[in-house]
Amino acid sequence: MILSDPGRPRSWQPPPLQDAAPAAAVPDTAAIAERARAEGYATGHAEGLAAGRAKAAATAAELAALLGNMAAPFRQQEADLLRELSELVVRVATAVVRRELETSPGAIQDVLAEALEILEAVEGPVDVHLHPADAALVREWLANELPKLAVTLHTDAALLRGGCRVATAESYVDASTERRLDDVLRALRESRGAVGGATET
């Protein structure tokens, strides 16, 4: 056994240090929270935008339906008003025509002359249907203006004064007051339909 020399001083050497394992990275909680917040905001924004659009579309459809329902009665009232006005015009026109014919009995002469002109060259017998009150005027007018024309007068109390129906073997002219009033009525109805169509559009 060898002992160290007690007379020599000894120096102390510390034991060698081993490499320490690297410390685990500490998670950045602030960054994680920010990223989560951003993702949540984006998701919520998209969902909220879609929901808002859907609600806006539904609201617009409801408003459109409401406006349509509100406008329908006004359109019907306008159509009713146009119809009533047309009927009123027809009644007034009829009354005016009848009054004019009563105060101007000679109008039948102009009507008959026009009807005969439409028939152009009339050589054969002519049948004229007219109101009894106009017969005397027409008979006198024919005797003065067309003495050679063979005319047979047929009185019909159902016809309005101021008009007549003229017929030959080959032709027929309806110059009755009723037909002329019907023409006015038809024109009014057509104009009413045109105005009604423009309003609906």
Note the main attributes of this structure.
four-stranded mixed beta sheet; 62% helix; 201 residues; 9% strand; hypothetical protein PF0899 fold; alpha+beta; 4 helices
Please describe what this structure looks like.
The chain is of the alpha+beta class. It has a domain at 97-200: ATP synthase, E subunit, C-terminal (hypothetical protein PF0899 fold). Helix content is 62%, strand content 9%. The protein is built from four helices and four strands, in the order ααβαβββα. It has helices at 29-103, 107-118, 132-145, 177-200, and strands at residues 126-130, 151-155, 164-167, 172-175. Strand 3 and strand 4 (172-175) form a beta hairpin. Helix 1 (29-103) runs antiparallel to helix 4. The longest helix has 75 residues, at 29-103. The radius of gyration is 54 Å and the shape is rod-shaped.
Quick structural overview:
By secondary structure, the protein is of the alpha+beta class. It has helices at 29-103, 107-118, 132-145, 177-200, and strands at 126-130, 151-155, 164-167, 172-175.
- What percent of residues adopt helix (DSSP H or I)? 55-70%
Q: Average pLDDT, to the nearest integer?
A: 76
Strand order of the largest sheet: 2-1-3-4
The number of helices is 4
CATH H-tier superfamily of the domain at 97-200: ATP synthase, E subunit, C-terminal
**Count of extended strands:** 4
Q: Gyration radius, to the nearest Å?
A: 54 Å
**What is the annotated CATH architecture of the domain at 97-200?**
2-Layer Sandwich
